């Protein structure tokens, strides 16, 4: 793969021939290139497998090829022909591997054997599964005898509903609610904001609503890279004449135009569909102000309509019967001055009035959002402001309208649904206690940020990672990497080697597991697993290819074996039977969550998935007030206090089009025109000139907070980019070294990865 940096604007659309070329390149990395068309044809299909990339909805009537460039890359990545077998670790010490980059580590291939870390030899060495489970069980029991709250059970968002249910049950039987998952760095903001606003922790739209909406308001979600299959319904919507308004500091190509690789005519003629009809480059953290401006302009339109004796712009009947807090909210908006709105949002009044006019005209509006809203100090308020805007015109709880958080990992929403949560109040603990004859722990568990703090403070001594790359995904890499090896026990269940596996506790295991695309054969035959998509639909998934190694175990089998080894006295959970037949786990899930999972086994193959109830869809508001709540924002800026110094910038940490979180597939961020390197900082041309820098210059980013910790990222190349002044962008996870652990979203504790205060220094 070429690593010569090449940086030039990309002129093409999202999708199109660029995506086909990119796929062909990635297919060569996958083991089964020849069988891949057949395999990809099973992706996201009834009786096929659920894509391991994003959580976007899987339609009941799928395209012949219901996958996207990035979903196919994820498939090839899992089916890697490379093998990280014991011989690999004989050649490479952990110290040496720490000099490899994220791409290099995962590109080495699939893990094949259970391994134990040998500190004396500074490397992983193979171990028997039974020995591994016995020692892990012993270690966990010792910690438990001391204090069961000293272990963290992390989950990354890929493991199935079945495994996740078993995992949370194990943690609770062990004695704590320390069940953070990747959601704690992601959409936890949603899980806190939406229950207060509309009484449910998940979005209110389903896929069919996309076919009926006549306007979409997109805030901080990069559809072209991170949920590309959503471009299909958006393309249809655009062709129908629906308006798509985007609020994003960066101009993202997937939000501008799209050529559908699944439409031969469009591919051959070079046709494109415009995606966004209006594009607003809001400042990082400027969304609360921007939405307040939209609301203010909507109220003005409403007043003007009333004065003319025309129908109202807001929906008074809906507001009266279904909502609470309207008067206060209207008063708050009336009290805001336009200059404050303009300053905080970085958008002009005229632009916001234009967007508000589009909103006011639309009959059915969907508000879509992602990390651009959730990863800020006041992310909860940002999400609640978007709900406020929708409530003004009754845009929640009717067809073609609603709120749509775009979830990340393919089963991250589902993991929360079946009990992976550090918040005991979200879990039916009494019922779990009854079903399994124990007294579940009631105390709040640790979030990701709390877990990091507890690890640094020595309060946690054991860490189990069910997938993911915790150490690389969290903020504050410097202290975290230094503090991690002080843990007594670290256990990582993984498919591929990553940097997090190079920092290990005194007793450390790396346990290789099956991926979802692989056949999961157990005592009763090949098993089916299930996942929940972003729109609350549950899907079955069947592995299709032979496992990467005969030594791999399924995640369910690993969780069960650790549980049995740790808690041999527990006889109320049939771990062995569950592993033999995942259908029995689904029965247990149904018993625990009867409203959501009624007839689980019978319904899991429903085309398009079977829907969980979404009460807000039917205007059943499970909030304390019994209504949908207008809520006032906690501040006008979602970010930390802005400094008066123009050289302090807000850093947005970004995903490229060639990565999945910390998994770096390659070095081609095609849509942004950045190839061959990830060590760049995107800056506004005026800021570059003002700071005396130049395009292409080498610089260092430094975090601009005064807390005694030095945080720097040297070796970055300046790229002049279409980004608002005062903001800059750099890639995640490389830039995580710059994020202070204590800068997180109030209430949800999601790290504030989208506006880190930084300064740019010339040179290294
Ligand atoms: N191919 C691929 N797919 C993925 C992933 C991946 O890494 N690769 N990750 C998965 C996961 S776990 C998740 S959570 C999702 C993430 O998907 P997204 O939610 O799209 O997350 P990001 O790419 O981090 O950022 C989204 C956008 O927010 C914009 N933004 C930044 N700050 C602000 C702001 O203050 N306001 C506004 N309005 N916008 C802002 C950025 O410019 C960017 O375009 O995707 C999932 N799908
Ligand atoms: N600065 C900054 N930081 C961020 C973000 C950001 O936008 N900016 N985004 C945050 C978000 S939204 C998220 S979700 C987190 C992601 O945090 P994580 O979910 O912890 O990280 P991933 O990079 O998705 O994990 C990749 C690893 O998962 C393992 N893996 C892959 N497939 C499987 C599987 O099927 N089973 C098992 N057991 N393991 C598997 C592989 O070993 C791979 O190396 O990062 C967060 N961190
Ligand atoms: Mo995520």
TrEMBL record:
<protein>
    <submittedName>
        <fullName>FdhF/YdeP family oxidoreductase</fullName>
    </submittedName>
</protein>
<dbReference type="InterPro" id="IPR006656">
    <property type="entry name" value="Mopterin_OxRdtase"/>
</dbReference>
<dbReference type="GO" id="GO:1990204">
    <property type="term" value="C:oxidoreductase complex"/>
</dbReference>
<dbReference type="Pfam" id="PF01568">
    <property type="entry name" value="Molydop_binding"/>
</dbReference>
<feature type="domain" description="Molybdopterin dinucleotide-binding">
    <location>
        <begin position="649"/>
        <end position="757"/>
    </location>
</feature>
<dbReference type="Pfam" id="PF00384">
    <property type="entry name" value="Molybdopterin"/>
</dbReference>
<dbReference type="GO" id="GO:0045333">
    <property type="term" value="P:cellular respiration"/>
</dbReference>
<dbReference type="GO" id="GO:0051539">
    <property type="term" value="F:4 iron, 4 sulfur cluster binding"/>
</dbReference>
<dbReference type="InterPro" id="IPR006657">
    <property type="entry name" value="MoPterin_dinucl-bd_dom"/>
</dbReference>
<keyword id="KW-0408">Iron</keyword>
<keyword id="KW-0411">Iron-sulfur</keyword>
<keyword id="KW-0560">Oxidoreductase</keyword>
<dbReference type="InterPro" id="IPR050123">
    <property type="entry name" value="Prok_molybdopt-oxidoreductase"/>
</dbReference>
<dbReference type="InterPro" id="IPR009010">
    <property type="entry name" value="Asp_de-COase-like_dom_sf"/>
</dbReference>
<keyword id="KW-0479">Metal-binding</keyword>
<dbReference type="InterPro" id="IPR041953">
    <property type="entry name" value="YdeP_MopB"/>
</dbReference>
<dbReference type="GO" id="GO:0043546">
    <property type="term" value="F:molybdopterin cofactor binding"/>
</dbReference>
<dbReference type="GO" id="GO:0008863">
    <property type="term" value="F:formate dehydrogenase (NAD+) activity"/>
</dbReference>
<comment type="similarity">
    <text>Belongs to the prokaryotic molybdopterin-containing oxidoreductase family.</text>
</comment>
<dbReference type="InterPro" id="IPR037951">
    <property type="entry name" value="MopB_CT_YdeP"/>
</dbReference>
<keyword id="KW-0004">4Fe-4S</keyword>
<keyword id="KW-0500">Molybdenum</keyword>
<dbReference type="GO" id="GO:0016020">
    <property type="term" value="C:membrane"/>
</dbReference>
<feature type="domain" description="Molybdopterin oxidoreductase">
    <location>
        <begin position="110"/>
        <end position="407"/>
    </location>
</feature>
<dbReference type="InterPro" id="IPR010046">
    <property type="entry name" value="Mopterin_OxRdtse_a_bac"/>
</dbReference>
<dbReference type="GO" id="GO:0030151">
    <property type="term" value="F:molybdenum ion binding"/>
</dbReference>
């Amino acid at each position: 793969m070429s690593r010569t940096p090449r940086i030039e604007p990309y002129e093409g659309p999202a999708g199109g021939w660029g995506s086909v070329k990119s796929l062909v390149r990635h297919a060569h990395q996958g083991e089964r290139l020849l069988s891949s068309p057949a395999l990809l044809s099973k992706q996201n299909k009834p009786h096929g497998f659920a894509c391991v990339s994003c959580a976007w909805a899987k339609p009941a009537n799928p395209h012949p090829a219901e996958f996207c460039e990035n979903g196919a890359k994820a498939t090839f990545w899992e089916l890697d022909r490379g093998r990280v077998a014991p011989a690999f670790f004989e050649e490479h010490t952990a110290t040496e591997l720490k000099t490899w980059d994220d791409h290099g580590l995962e590109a080495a291939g699939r893990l094949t054997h259970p391994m134990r870390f040998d500190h004396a030899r500074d490397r992983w060495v193979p171990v028997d599964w039974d020995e591994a489970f016995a020692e892990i069980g012993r270690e966990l029991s010792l910690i438990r005898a001391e204090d069961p709250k000293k272990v963290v059970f992390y989950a990354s968002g890929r493991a199935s509903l079945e495994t996740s249910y078993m995992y949370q049950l194990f943690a609770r039987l062990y004695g704590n609610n320390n069940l953070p998952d990747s959601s704690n760095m992601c959409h936890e903001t949603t899980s806190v904001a939406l229950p207060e606003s509309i009484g449910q922790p998940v979005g209110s739209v389903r896929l069919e609503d996309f076919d009926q909406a006549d306007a979409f308001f997109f805030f901080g979600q990069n559809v072209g890279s991170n949920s590309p299959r959503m471009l299909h319904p958006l393309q249809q919507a655009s062709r129908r004449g629906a308006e798509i308004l985007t609020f994003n500091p960066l101009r993202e190509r997937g939000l501008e135009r799209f050529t559908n690789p699944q439409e031969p005519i469009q591919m051959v003629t070079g046709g494109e569909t415009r995606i966004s009809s209006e594009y607003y480059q809001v400042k990082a953290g400027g969304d609360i102000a921007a939405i307040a401006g939209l609301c203010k302009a909507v109220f003005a339109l409403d007043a003007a309509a009333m004065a003319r004796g025309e129908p109202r712009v807001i929906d008074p009947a809906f507001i009266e019967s279904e909502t609470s807090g309207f008067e206060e909210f209207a008063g708050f908006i009336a009290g805001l001055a336009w200059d404050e709105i303009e300053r905080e949002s970085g958008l002009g009044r005229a632009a916001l009035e234009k967007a508000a006019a589009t909103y006011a005209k639309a009959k059915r509006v969907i508000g879509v959002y992602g990390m651009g809203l959730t990863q800020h100090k006041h992310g909860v308020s940002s999400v609640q402001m978007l709900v406020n805007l929708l409530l003004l015109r009754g845009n929640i709880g009717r067809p073609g309208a609603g709120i749509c958080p775009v979830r990340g990992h393919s089963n991250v929403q589902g993991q929360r649904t079946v009990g992976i949560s550090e918040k005991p109040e979200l879990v039916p603990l009494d019922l779990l206690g009854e079903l399994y004859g124990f007294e579940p722990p009631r105390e709040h568990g640790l979030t990701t940020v709390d877990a990091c703090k507890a690890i640094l403070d020595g309060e946690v001594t054991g860490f189990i990672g069910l997938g993911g790359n915790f150490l690389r995904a969290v903020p504050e890499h410097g202290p975290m990497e230094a503090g991690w090896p002080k843990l007594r026990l670290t256990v990582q269940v993984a498919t591929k080697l990553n940097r997090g596996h190079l920092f290990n506790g005194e007793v450390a295991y790396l346990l290789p597991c099956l991926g979802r695309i692989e056949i999961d054969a157990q005592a009763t035959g090949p098993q089916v697993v299930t996942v929940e998509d972003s729109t609350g639909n549950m899907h079955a998934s069947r592995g299709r290819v032979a496992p990467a190694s005969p030594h791999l175990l399924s995640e369910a089998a690993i969780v069960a074996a650790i549980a049995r080894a740790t808690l041999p006295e527990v006889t109320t959970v049939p771990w062995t039977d569950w592993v033999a037949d995942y259908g029995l786990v689904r029965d247990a899930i149904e018993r625990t969550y009867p409203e959501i999972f009624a007839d689980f086994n019978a319904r899991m193959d429903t085309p398009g998935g079977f829907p969980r109830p979404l009460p807000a869809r039917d205007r059943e508001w499970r909030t304390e007030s019994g209504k949908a709540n207008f809520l006032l924002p906690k501040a006008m800026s979602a970010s930390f206090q802005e400094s008066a110094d123009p050289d302090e910038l807000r850093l947005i940490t970004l995903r490229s089009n060639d990565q999945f979180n910390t998994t770096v597939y390659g070095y081609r961020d095609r849509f942004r025109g950045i190839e061959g390197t990830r060590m760049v900082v995107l800056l506004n041309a005026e800021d570059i000139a003002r700071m005396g820098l130049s395009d292409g210059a080498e610089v260092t980013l430094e975090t601009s907070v005064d807390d005694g910790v030095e945080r720097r990222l040297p070796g970055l190349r300046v790229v002049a980019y279409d980004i608002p002044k005062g903001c800059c962008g750099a890639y995640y996870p490389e830039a995580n070294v710059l994020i202070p652990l204590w800068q997180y979203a109030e209430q949800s504790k999601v790290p504030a990865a989208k506006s880190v205060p930084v300064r740019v220094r010339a040179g290294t």
